[in-house]
Specification:
With 115 residues, the protein is an all-alpha fold. 81% of the residues lie in helices and 0% in strands. The N and C termini lie far apart (90 Å).
């Protein structure tokens, strides 16, 4: 599949090259004028590419900062839950240690007095 897609892209590039060549050969202006216009268009294209790269870079930094902040919040929440759970376990252990010891259950083989 990838080989087929690469072939289509190569034909696409070839079509662009043929279209440019045809436009240059049939252009009503001089070669110097054509080169100047092509240079201007190339410069505009470079500027757009530079702006797009800066925008993408800025957006990437924003996403990274947002992800880092979310990670910090999740970590802090996990720490709070751990402390709460630990406190609850310690309180429960203390309550159990203070509770009176229940009487052992009667052995089923014992006979009840008066029976």
């Amino acid at each position: 599949m990838a080989k087929h897609e690469g072939s289509e892209f190569a034909w696409f590039l070839a079509g662009i090259a043929l279209g440019l060549a045809g436009a240059l050969l049939t252009a009503p202006q001089t070669g110097e004028e054509t080169r100047r216009r092509l240079g201007e268009q190339a410069e505009r294209g470079r500027e757009r590419l530079r702006e797009a790269r800066q925008n993408a870079s800025g957006r990437g930094r924003e996403l990274l900062d947002d992800a880092a902040e979310s990670g910090r919040k999740v970590f802090e929440r996990g720490r709070e839950l751990y402390k709460s759970g630990r406190n609850l376990a310690e309180e429960t252990a203390a309550d159990l240690a203070e509770a009176p010891t229940p009487e052992p259950l009667a052995d089923p083989g014992d006979t009840a007095p008066g029976a």
